[in-house]
Amino acid sequence: xxxxxxxxxxxxxxxxxxxxxxxxxxxxxxVGDVILRIFNRPxxxxxxxxxxxxxxxxxxxxxxxxxxxxxxxxLFLIEKVSSxxxxxxxTLTYILGIFMFLAVGRSLLPYxxxxxxxGEVSMTIHLPFYPVVFGIGVSCFINCIVLFHQLIGIFGExxxxxx
Length: 163
Description:
This protein is mostly helical. The protein has 5 helices and no strands.
């Protein structure tokens, strides 16, 4: 099982890297567009590209951020309860998180398929929407696995608590 979760961690790390590249892309496109507008040569489709890249930034960063516990948690509440209640609260939190990301991923994949079948593309540069939607949907499923790993770590010997 450690090999499986190790592969998920590696995949999450690569997705995090892709999200970082996409973030740099947003920055370069935006700065380039501002500079080129001075010369009356704006970049065509900058809005479309920014939206696509923002979807990649947000969606692909979720699993590794969850793995690293870089997300927002309400620590002041959890730290004030006993160890037993802490386990209960964390278990409920992880289970709710798994179901939420499962529901989002489950709805994004059919939505991406509908976009593909309809041939839906962006208005300006005609990029298809479905690859980003599929990517975010898959990212949600990967995040479910990460949350499950952390859930079993609550009851195991710390194996779900590694960074």
